[in-house]
Amino acid sequence: MTVSATARPTGHPGYSETLPREAASAETARRLVRTALAAWGLEPVAEDGALVVTELVANAVNHTRGRCIRVIVARTDGDLVRLGVVDKSCTLPALQHPTDTELGGRGLTLVDALATRWGTDLKGWGKCVWAELKAESST
Question: Which residue segment(s) compose the domain that 15 sits in?
Fold first, then answer.
């Protein structure tokens, strides 16, 4: 796994990686999230973060086009972490309300339950779907 860690212009650290738009990329995205959260001493939110990024990657894989996605993990303010998945589709994600008999459609419902907030930033060529998690530092 090649992880790029960068200092952002705001002074807040961030990690990102471009991955193939395929289901297997979810595992790499989970490792990226766990690595970043461990580096920042935010392990208490690591499993929620891994689950959230798994759902965001799954949505990009299943509902967008293009060969690649980009996973972003940024510490935006204190103990607030933003997880994002960038893809080349301008179609906005929609929160579904599946019935008990439907197998799919629960990903964003799970993100909504675990995240402090979530949303979408539209770009001219696609979008970034993001979720923010708040965690107490373990250090």
Answer: 4-134
Structure token pair of residue 100 = 């008990």
Do residues 30 and 54 lie in contact, with contact meaning Cβ atoms separated by under 8 Å? yes
Cα 124 to Cα 16, 66, 88, 89: the distances in Å are 20, 15, 9, 10
Question: Based on the structure, what is the number of domains in the chain?
Answer: 1
Contact 61, 75 (CB under 8 A): no
- What pTM did the predictor assign? 0.84
Angle at the Cα of 94 (from 89 to 98), degrees rounded to 5? 130
Say if CB 108 and CB 59 are below 8 A apart.
Answer: yes
Euclidean distance between CA atoms 79 and 40, whole angstroms = 9
Mean pLDDT of 35-49: 94
Q: How far apart are CA 126 and CA 110, in angstroms?
A: 23
Q: Are 131 and 61 in contact (CB under 8 A)?
A: no
Domain assignment present for 124: yes
